[in-house]
Design goal:
Layout lengths: L4 H7 L8 H26 L5 H6 L9 H5 L2 H22 L2 H34 L9 E6 L6 E8 L2 E9 L11 E8 L2 E6 L7
Parallel strand pairs: 3-5
Antiparallel strand pairs: 1-2, 1-4, 2-3, 4-5
Helix pairs in contact: 2-5, 5-6
Length: 204
């Protein structure tokens, strides 16, 4: 027995939709189903975590740009789900295809952005839980984002067998450490590293 999209929508009570509303309804149903299934599997045992890496061959690095974090599986599924839901709602309300597509796209992008932020937050918590920042003390690295006088910047330091980009402050808060300056980590406050320039890069 062949099941078409219209007959499936009719089965779940959306058989009255027509035209582009069929697309919206199908994306809403499929996106919501897969989104909920994803998180169910994630809760059960982390089965869905990293599914893009294993199945689709994508590799998402925590040090990569935030744009890549938007393209996690949950981000894509949330876009499909919200695009369908909001697109269908607006289309049914005012019968404007252009406005429905615009509303669905906007809602999808917002939900993808939110999911990217959530992904970043949980990955950060996971990373902090596995990293002992005391191991950074004594490590050498380089200033990645200029550390201003009395302020914070970022450094790239290798410890626990990984190159990490960390928030950092200068031991001598009266001096600025420019990007590219070679540094040594001398202490830490929480996850913020306290650094000083290496002898060769110290100001005369």
């Amino acid at each position: 027995m062949e099941i078409s999209i219209p007959s499936f929508l009719d089965f779940i009570g959306l058989g009255s939709v027509s035209g582009i509303d069929i697309l919206f309804a199908a994306m809403a149903v499929i996106g919501t189903t897969l989104f909920l299934l994803y998180f169910l599997l994630l809760i059960i045992g982390g089965f869905a975590d990293g599914i893009l890496d294993g199945v689709f061959g994508f590799d998402f690095d925590m040090d990569s740009g935030f744009a890549f974090e938007l393209l996690t599986l949950q981000g894509i599924l949330s876009f499909i789900m919200m695009f369908g839901i909001f697109g269908l709602a607006v289309s049914q309300a005012n019968d404007s295809t252009l406005m429905a597509i615009a509303a669905g796209t906007f809602a999808g992008l917002v939900s993808m952005y939110i999911m990217g932020k959530v992904y970043h937050l949980f990955r950060g918590l996971e990373s902090d839980g596995n990293v002992n920042h005391d191991n950074a003390v004594g490590a050498r690295g380089e200033v990645y984002v200029t550390i201003p006088k009395g302020g914070s910047g970022q450094v790239q330091v290798t410890y626990q067998n990984a190159l990490r980009t960390m928030s950092a402050r200068a031991k001598n808060g009266d001096s600025e450490l420019a990007s590219g300056t070679m540094i040594t980590v001398v202490d830490r406050v929480g996850s913020t590293l306290i650094v000083e320039p290496m002898a060769g890069d110290a100001e005369a």
